[in-house]
Write a structure and sequence with these properties.
The complex is a heterodimer. By secondary structure, chain A is mostly helical. Chain A is built from 11 helices and no strands. Chain A has one domain. In chain A, helix 2 packs parallel to helix 5 (about 90-130), helix 3 (about 45-80) runs antiparallel to helix 5 (about 90-130) and helix 5 (about 90-130) runs antiparallel to helix 11. The chains are: A mainly alpha, B alpha/beta. At the A-B interface, helix 1 and helix 4 of A face helix 2 of B. Bound molecules: adenosine-5'-triphosphate and magnesium ion (MG).
Amino acid sequence: MRILVIAINTFKEAIRDKILYNLLFFALLMIGTSLLLATLTVGEQSKIIIDIGLASINIFGVLIAIFLGIGLISKEIEKRTIYNILSKPMPRYQFLIGKYIGLLLTIAVNTTIMGIGLYIVLAINELQWGHSILNVNPDIWKAIYLILIELMVVTAIALMFSTFSSSSSLSAIFTIALYIIGHLTEDIRLIGEKLQSVTLKGVINLIYYLLPNLDNFNVKGRVVYGIEISPIYLSLVTLYGLFYISIVLLLSGMIFQKRDFK
Amino acid sequence: MHPTVIKTENLTKVFKIGFRGRRVTALRNLNLEVKEGEIFGFLGPNGAGKTTTIKMLIGLIYPTNGKAWILGRELGDVEIKKRIGFLPEQPYFYDYLSSKEFLKFYGQLFGLERDELKERIDTLLTMVGLKDAADLQLRKFSKGMLQRIGIAQALINHPDLIILDEPMSGLDPIGRKEIRDLILRLKEEGKTIFFSTHIIPDVEMVCDRVGILMKGELVNVGKPTEIIDAKIKYIEIIVSDINQEILIHGKAMGFTICETGGQVSIKLPDENQLDFMLEMIRSGKGRIVSVVPQRETLEEFFLKKTGERIS
Ligand SMILES: Nc1ncnc2c1ncn2[C@@H]1O[C@H](COP(=O)(O)OP(=O)(O)OP(=O)(O)O)[C@@H](O)[C@H]1O
Ligand SMILES: [Mg+2]
């Protein structure tokens, strides 16, 4: 109940943020532009639109998650609004979860809007060629769903940095770095395999498992080339995401609980 | 015997600051008891450790050492906060909310039900005189209005213990009087009030007991009349149309006299001389403009206290 009160308030605050609308605007602009780009090329227009569209949704989603996520807690501390809230009968972890859910709500709404934007552009493209809009590849929704799970992971990471770092820009840099490395984990594993030293191998392996394997959530290529995305794959990746989020939130909660709010 | 509402035992807070970890003891071995139904004033100059103490009681920071109990429960019990009302030092609130939304938000955190909450919000807005500002965003509030809405949110849960950090700061004399009246009214309702301030008259006028905190240490606790001896330094009489003879007489008695633009200020070092002097002025047909006792300022009072402790 209290978690919900915090979540709703966070959502209301987030949708007042100008950054959100700017990012959303640019995302929709990119998706719209993909239609123009597609008409300049020969054949496979929908593939180009899907490629650009999903990439836009992903990138702008990550930007929204990071820019709103890093301020989630640190802004409350900076503006000292946190004093009064934590003086109420609410365990600190509940406040944290409430903030997290509030931001997820915002991100979910945004991702849906971007998804609908992409769908509309694809539908227009089909109509241009005199096809039925039923021709729009329904697998884009699977890809968007996985992007959303990825954004949930990224938001949790941003939240974690936000709970202990007093500098927002530092949190942003850390989160972006982790996001990029999160997409390179496969390379890290390969590097590990080539190494001779057993200890070094172990260390690299450990890092590999600690880092979020964000490429798991990337199925853009498969959608573009019409490769089947099985329900089992979707469920496994979802489970992985939820597991990773739980660990990160638990860690954030522990850090947050110990903090002095001076 | 009244039950104890706040009890601290050697409560200590050491802050580490900077990279080097320089240590600042903000509060040292505080031992304090506040009884049910009391208005307790926590008096101290800037940096004395008042806010630090209150933050520990509320659970925003953790003690470095020592223990404390609130309403019989040791610090760290979240449930006990249902019975506490708190006003932070400077009211930092979500300023995009209106008064009503703001109170609703905090009421919901206490789990108040819809109808009950609506009624409570109405009562509180009337009580603090913000009925007309019910739909106004907090960002448009004056300092005094913010302080009042802050007090309203502190009362939303019908708390038994009310902790206010500098509730009168930044208010004009009328605003302060309103807050004092409110505090007295809450006491009549049987509530315990603990508030911090650095203004002596505020404490004298409402508190049952006062604790004086200086440089992190509690130096005195007791009834205001017992421990606050901010002496009347001198009494200043301002007169006009006074004849010179009386002034010469006054000078002879050792009063400080200065004349400015037709008015004369006479400073009497001792209040026992007041009747005598007034009599003389009247008999000389002088017109008395004002008689004001000048007290020590807080700074002088604390300086004196510090001096006593050093010597
Ligand atoms: N976060 C902090 N880090 C380091 N030192 C601190 C911190 N907060 C307070 N202090 C120090 O602790 C001491 C007590 O501060 P505190 O805010 O409790 O005083 P106060 O009595 O509330 O003063 P004021 O009347 O100015 O509000 C001060 O010396 C202050 O410098
Ligand atoms: Mg203070």
